[in-house]
Amino acid sequence: MDNKKGNKVSRRNFIGTTATVAAGITIVPRHVLGGIGYKAPSDTLNIAGIGVGGMGRANLREMASENIVALCDVDWKYAQRAFNNYPKANKYKDYRKMLEDMGEDIDAVVIATPDHTHAVSAADSMKMGKHVYLQKPLTHSIYESRYLTELAKETGVATQMGNQGHSGEGTRLFAEWIRNGEIGDPVEAHCWTNRPIWPQGLERPEEEPPVPSTLDWDLFIGPAEYRPYHPAYTPWNWRAWWDFGTGALGDMGCHLIDPVYFALDLGHPAAFEGSSTQVNTESAPVAEKVIYYFPEQIPLEKIKRPELKLTWYDGGLMPERPEGIKPGKIMGDGGGGAMVVGTKGTIICSTYGRDPYIIGREDNPPQINKTIPRVKTSHEMDWVRACKEPKAKRVEASSHFGYSGPFNEVVVMGNLAVRLQDLKKKLIWDGKDMKITNIGDNEEIKVVTTNKFTVINGDPKFNTQYTTINAKEAAEEYIKHSYRKGWQLT
C-alpha cells in the first residue's frame, strides 16, 4: 500500500457523512457528546507507529485489537518484520509526511524511535490532537520532558510512557507496603542494572562507509548535529551515543528507579553528583554511579519522608548487600533491582518492580488493603482504554505524562551528573527553573576526546587527549538541546 492519500474519503468523514444521511441531521455526532478525540469504548483506534523495527513492533503487537493504519521508520530493512505484520498499513520514512498525509485517519501514535527524536515526533503528534504512547526514556533531555508534560495538559490527549513495569502488581505492592509503614520511614534507596549490554565508552568512528539504500540517514540524525553514517550508530547501538541515546541510565532508570520514585512521590531532587569510568565527548561510560539528594517532604500516609539519598549504579556496579539478606540470595534479579532501606526494615524488588519482598519477611509478606488502583489489562491496552474515554471523564493511563514527565526529568538529569563530574562537587538543582545553581560563569571541565594506544615492546602507550569546555554552557546545552536547522520544538 503506498503512502499517498489521494482523493480517498477519510474514515472520519465517511462515518460522519453516512451516519447523517441514514439517521437525519437531528443525530448529534458522538465526538460532540464526548469531546474532541472521543471514541466510544466499543470503537477501535486507528493507530500509527513511528519507529517500528524494535520495541515499536512489540508495542503494536500488544494492540492487536486496534487498527494499525500507518507505519513509519527511517530504516525499512530493520522495519520489514513490522511491515510484514501489517501489509495494509501505509508505509513512510518521515513521520511528518505521514501526519500530513493521514492526519484525519490517525487517532493515536506509538513512538519507539531513538531517544533524540522522541520529543519532536511526540510534540508534532500531540499538537494535531493525536494520543501518544512514547517509549522510555520519555525524552533525551530535561527540558523536553517538561515541554511534553505541559503540552499534554494543553492538548488533553491521552499519553503513556513505555515503562511497562509501572502497570504491574509488583510496583503497586512495593508502594503500598512502604506507605503503610512496613519498613518504617525511608532513609536511603538504591537502584541498579546490569546494563549496558551493548558497547559504551566509544570514540567516534573515523570510517565513512556508504549509507544503506534502505536507510534515510538524514532523517535518522533528525534534530541532532549532523555526522557521517556508520553502522555503530544504528539500528541498535544508538543508545550508547550522547547525541542519540541516554546510555544505561536512560534505558533502565525508567524501569528501576520508578518503583522508588512512585512509592515515595519524590518530586525534584535538591542536588546530585556522579562518578564513572572514563567519560568522553561521544558516548556514555562503561559503568557509573549517580547520587540524587531529595529534600525532606511532608508525611505520606503512614510514613515520614526525611531527606533521602538515592543511588543509581550501572555497568555491573552494585550497592552493598543489606543487613539480614540471606547468603547467596540474589538482590533483585539478573537484570537489576531496587531497594529502600527504612528505619524498621529493607524492601527489595526485581526489574520492572516485580516480586517485591521485605528482608526477613519473605515467607510472611504484609497483608494490607490494596489502596492503589490496579491495571487490569496490559500497559499498552491501559493507554488504549484512556484514548477511548472522553477527557472530562478519563482515568489517565498509569504512566501518563503528568507522572512520567517529571519522573523522566530525574532519570535523565543523572547524565548531567556524569558529564559534569570533573567539577568535583555536588551540583545544586533548581527544579522549577531547570538549572544548576552553583556553576560559575568561568568554570571549566576537561573531557576525553580520544584515548588511543599503541603497544611498544609489549607495553601499551596511551595517547589520551582532552578538550576543555565551559561547564555552565555545557550544562545549559545538556538540559535544553540546540536543534539542527529544520527541527524545532516550539
TrEMBL record:
Record-linked SUPFAM superfamilies: Glyceraldehyde-3-phosphate dehydrogenase-like, C-terminal domain, NAD(P)-binding Rossmann-fold domains
UniProt xrefs under InterPro entries: Gfo/Idh/MocA-like_OxRdtase_N, Gfo/Idh/MocA_oxidrdct_glycsds, Gfo/Idh/MocA_OxRdtase_bact_C, NAD(P)-bd_dom_sf
Domain Gfo/Idh/MocA-like oxidoreductase bacterial type C-terminal: 208-289
Residue stretches making up the Gfo/Idh/MocA-like oxidoreductase N-terminal domain: 46-162
A Pfam family matched in the record: GFO_IDH_MocA_C2
Record protein name field: Gfo/Idh/MocA family oxidoreductase
